[in-house]
Amino acid sequence: MAHRIAGVFVLFFVIGSLALPPATQSQPDGESNHRESAGESTTAERLILDEQSFIPDDASHPGFVTSARRLLVPPELKEAPEEWIENSLAWCDFIFNSMPPAIPEYPARRAALQRLDDILHIQSAPDDPVVRQFYIHRIEHAIEEIRTTRVTSGMRIWKLYNHGFFVKTATVSFCFDLVPGAPETSFQIPHNLVRQLAELSDAMFISHWHPDHANKGVAAEFLALNKPVIAPPGLWSDDPSFSGRLTYANRDPLHIQKIAVTRSERTILVRTFPGHQGPPIENDLYLVTTPEGFTVMHLGDQFSSPDDHSEDAIFKDFARKYHVDVLLPNAWNPRLLQTITSVNPALVIPGHENELAHAVPHREDYVQSYERLTGCKTPWLIMAWGEGYSFHPENRLMLRSIRQKQD
User: Fold this and answer.
1) Is residue 230 part of a domain?
2) Could you tell me which of 140, 112, 142, 189 has the C-alpha nearest to residue 389?
């Protein structure tokens, strides 16, 4: 019992240390942080307190969590009553529909997203038909909104599964990293919903080859409709007859690719930055400009370890060279705040939470997104499956005002 109390004290210490940015964690005059000076912090504390650290799976951790990555979120359930799951999902759906993403955020949204985390971190969640039906319902909700929403100014952005997003303006629509669901599981939307998304979109961008970002069947739906699929060079090169129909991205950001949109006879302008997920995996960072002049940037699984500075070349002086209205980063990037500062967008919408093909410790929580974005001066939104948000020209001034108030 004493051991458990001591463990809880360590967790409270970690959370308390994270409650304020380091610059504001002041001590009384003449005092210093005794634990830090005495070198008494645990491995888990050191890893979590350093915002730039990547927490390895084998890091030491207290027994009440399954991984050091899970220290700042409630321990996951192994199983739960179906009635609790069904009622919880119905409540989440009610909150998401009645309190959509907004700045400032409705407080109840955070509670709903945390409850959704609880459910999706049950080991068996991908196999639960109630959870799968909730996911299908949320994507059906997005499709109906996409179909019926008339965008007259700005752009509306819907969050789909994992790091998938759908963007619609008055003249064009396109999506990023569209997949049916968790790879190699039954947790997927029916094929007819994939087809509807392809019909509603004018183009699709794929950041890299990982199956939670790239799906050949989805790409085939776009190609069958003669719609461009922009992909990393070499994707599906083992099938030349298929890959030959893809539009490979030019990974030189000085080069602007022009993607023709047949439906509206407009053109989407694309700059592709040569990113990577760790050293071995090429990951394309797309900066897309709509015909109306709005810009959205999708980062895929851009990731560098703390001692890898290769991405510095991408983001050095980025905000001076390029303008980004909405940034769509992966929430688990340990350099998230640094990247946001470098890009300097008007708005941030993170992705890659709750990818259910991942092991439970790697199903990134919505709660973790809140924690990682604490202290971010750029306005941000956390969205669930199927939710949308409208970015209007006047948002630029409003969001800039919010940022200035935080400075």
Assistant:
1) yes
2) 142
**pLDDT < 70 regions, the chain:** 1-55, 57, 306, 395-407
**Residue 14 lies inside a defined structural domain of this protein:** no
Query: What's the domain count of the chain?
Result: 1
Give the range of the structural domain holding residue 337, as residue numbers without chain letter. Answer: 82-406
Report cis status (omega within 30 of 0) of the bond before 228.
no
CA angle 14, 309, 294 (to 5 degrees): 90
**Which residues are 166's β-sheet partners?**
158, 175
Residue 312 lies in a domain: yes
146 located within any domain: yes
Distance, first Cα to last Cα, the chain = 45
pLDDT of residue 27: 35
CA dist 342 and 348 (Å) reads 13
Residue type, 144: E
Distance CA 392, CA 206 (A): 26
- Tell me the CATH number at 293: 3.60.15.10
Which pLDDT does position 111 carry in this prediction? Answer: 96
Q: SS in 3 state form for 153-215? A: CCEEEEECCCCCEEEECCCCEEEECCCCECCCCCCECCHHHHHHHHHHCCCEECCCCCCCCCC
CB 90 within 8 A of CB 70: no
